[in-house]
Amino acid sequence: MKLQKTRRHQLLWLFIASVLALTMYPTKSRAQIIGNLEADIPFQFQAGNAKFPPGKYVIHMQDNSDLTIMEISSADGKMSALFDVRDAEANSAPAKNELIFNKYGSRYFLAKVFDESNSNGSAVIESRYEKRIDKATAGAQEHVAARHQGN
């Protein structure tokens, strides 16, 4: 009888400790670009494995992708591509919607997408080609302003 009581007491304390640990552990917010972003990109670039000429583009998160796949398409709808993303966090919340490109020589690669006033965004998973270029060339970044579609 006493052994059963002690066992119940131990299980109760284990349960309480587990609940406290779960409530104290900080949860990381997920990146989410809300709606469609439009951008006028003035240079040729690559998003994932697809190459695009300069022009106007629309970027959005794919529905039902668990925030891991984005789509970019030309404003005229003639070109589009899907690319994988992961969570990204800016040091401070950007003042405007923006696309950030990694620049290696004269080559540009879409690297990150942020909504204004939100430090959580999306980082594009580097393609094998970009990884090769990154190792061989010193890089820089280029920021391009974006706006929500219809604004």
Overview of this structure, please?
By secondary structure, the protein is of the alpha+beta class. The chain has one domain (37-148). It has helices at residues 2-24, 128-136; strands at residues 37-41, 45-47, 50-52, 55-61, 69-74, 80-89, 98-104, 107-114, 120-124, 139-145, 147-148. A nine-stranded antiparallel sheet has the order 10-7-8-9-6-5-4-1-11. The protein is elongated and about 75 Å long. The chain starts with a helix and ends with a strand. The mean pLDDT is 83.
List the main descriptive attributes of the protein structure presented here.
alpha+beta; 42% strand; elongated; two-stranded antiparallel sheet; 151 residues; 2 helices; 21% helix
